[in-house]
Amino acid sequence: MKAISDLIKRPTFISIVFITLVGLGIPLIVYQLFTLDPSGSLGITIEIIFFLVLFGLLVIDRFLLININNKKLSVIEGVLITGYLIYYYFTNDRSFSIG
Q1: pTM, whole model, 2 decimals?
Q2: Which residue ranges traverse the bilayer (predicted)?
C-alpha cells in the first residue's frame, strides 16, 4: 500500500506516463481478449511486453527517487526523453512515423 501512496505523493515524469498508459492499456487488452481473432494474440503479447518494460522503468525510477530529489529527477527524465525524441526525429527523415 505504501508503494501506491508513494506514486501519488511523489510523482515523477515516468510514473505519470506509466499510470496513464496502464490506465489506457488494460481496458484495451481486455477488449482485445473478448474480440480475439486468430491474428490478435501477437498484438496482446507485444502490449504485455511493453507494459513489462514500462514496469521495469518504473522500478528504476522509484529506486532513483530514493537517492535523488523528485523535482530534479523529473527534470532529468524530461530532458532524457526529449533528447531521445529529438534524436529519433532527426535520424528518421525528420518524421515520427513508424512506416
Answers
A1: 0.71
A2: 12-34, 40-60, 72-90
